[in-house]
Design brief:
The chain is of the alpha+beta class. The chain is 42% helix and 21% strand. It contains 9 helices and 8 strands. It has a 4-stranded antiparallel beta sheet. A hairpin with a 5-residue loop joins strand 1 and strand 2.
Length: 248
């Protein structure tokens, strides 16, 4: 899939090595901790933010024990670590736009890691809002194919749910909606007993750009370097990533 390839990576988590899976679970654990503290407590029925993170954790097969431990830890049972949300913006190879979301207990360490990645792979950190204007925040819902839903069914549900748009992709359907309507759309599909493989609010670029082969390779190394950091939660960008890169 060109451009938005995030789900392709998530769905292949089983094929990744244990170190990569462990790192992913660590990052989600941080999200759970922040959701408990900032979203309204440890009860997902009363904390929408926590409910969404738990759904994300389950979509990548994070064990229930890990989820429970993260919630208990954030509730004050055990070592209590406070994480701070930080957003970095910058330019990748050939002027590509990159937004990095991080959760950290050490801002100096995280800033150093992010800056090093940009500098090493042909980019540079920018000032606040230097590339944000190129993106729009949207709620994204992913529905895997093979569940007996036709393209017409998806289009009908998109309209009835009040979502903005639906894309028919190779192995899944992608529903998009405004952040304000995200929970209503999500609830619609849940009430219809339609399994949702992923539900998140993301930063979607208004337009994607194509990079020459050499720059694309460097850009992928930049992404890998950023995502390798335990502190980095999400990386959004406006580069078309060919389908073959999703399956690596």
């Amino acid at each position: 899939m060109s451009g938005h390839n995030k789900w392709s990576k998530i769905k292949n988590v089983k094929a990744k090595n244990e170190a990569v899976i462990s790192k992913l679970y660590t990052k989600i654990g941080r999200e759970i901790a922040v959701a408990v503290k900032e979203g309204g407590g440890p009860d997902p029925s009363l904390n929408v933010r926590l409910k969404n993170v738990i759904a994300k954790a389950k979509s990548v097969n994070m064990p229930n024990d890990n989820i429970s431990r993260s919630i208990k830890k954030a509730s004050g049972e055990g070592i209590n670590i406070n994480y701070e949300s930080i957003i970095y913006e910058g330019y990748g190879p050939a002027g590509s736009a990159v937004i990095v979301y991080a959760l950290t207990d050490n801002k100096n360490r995280t800033a150093s890691d992010v800056r090093h990645a940009f500098d090493k792979f042909g980019g540079s950190l920018g000032s606040t809002n230097c590339v944000t204007y190129l993106f729009t925040q949207k709620g994204i819902l992913i529905i895997g194919k093979g569940q007996g839903l036709t393209e017409d069914d998806i289009m009908m549900h998109t309209i009835e749910s009040g979502a903005d748009d639906a894309e028919i992709l190779d192995s899944y359907y992608q529903i998009s909606t405004s952040p304000e309507n995200f929970e209503n759309v999500k609830e619609y599909f849940e009430n219809k007993n339609i399994p949702l493989d992923s539900t998140e609010i993301e930063m979607i670029p208004s337009n994607y750009i194509d990079l020459p082969t050499d720059k694309l390779k460097t850009f992928n190394k930049l992404l890998e370097s950023l995502e390798d950091s335990d502190d980095v939660q999400e990386v959004y960008h406006n580069v078309n990533l060919p389908e073959e890169n999703d399956e690596e």
